Task: structure prediction
Amino acid sequence: MAKSIREVYGSVLAELGETNHDIVVLDADLSGSTKSKMFGDAHPDRFFNMGIAESNMVATAAGLSTTGKIPFVNTFTAFLTTLGLIATRAQVCYGNLNVKLGGAYCGMSDALDGATHHALEDISAMRALPNMRLLVPSDATSTKWATEYAAKTYGPFYLRLSRDVYPDLYPADYQFECGKGAIVRDGKDVTVIACGLLVHKAIEAAEVLEKKGVSVRVVDMYSVKPIDKELILKCAGETGAIVTAEEHNIYGGLGSAVSEVLAWAGAGVPTEFVGIQDTFTESGKYADLLAKYGVDANGVANGIEKVLARKK
Result:
């Protein structure tokens, strides 16, 4: 049965703490929501509630990392990648320190709290930082891998985590690799390169368009930085059109990262961005927000139809 991304993250952290006593966890008074509380309940001597002080929390994690600890820093994405950004940039990334950032409630998944709590620019901010690696899980298995990989691999990591339940996509023994993506549905007419929830929305769109005779390839770009340049260029060459799909502003996120790869390689194929169209969002039910801002299955299908019209 599918599990919420945050629940998987919290349980994996607690499990890792059983065998790796260098792992410490920090939260900004939201551990019940981020599920870092699972670690705190299991290992209270290595859990620190820092209060509503995100910049100080990241700075504290930076200091802990210099003593050999492996800090996992947690709060809502909207606060971690804004209020926590100065310490992330000036201490964690500048010093190439062994700090892991768990950004909970990414995208619009904190739906009813509205624009101030929606995180639609975090990929842009994090991928622009030297030394930072950025992983976006799309199901329970990839969340488990991302958390374990970050724990065992030296350096700064940002994990983009949703509060929502994502359907199972990968078998338990799937071999992920940082810097790679995965073709989760094959097709020949167009490729949708997506991350997070939008991988599932892309699959839904592909299934609908298949009935209209359109063959859609879907790629899960679970590693946004480093990104899988080889796979992007392979898909551009084989399908001749690219759609990117993300629960993020169309500027600076996955779409920009994919377009940079295409531009550097001179791979001039029609490209369409499915994402938040450079606007602030609002409070509402999650499914309604996804539909209103064009990041549901219908939004992905519309993007595919637009790019195919240009391909002709």
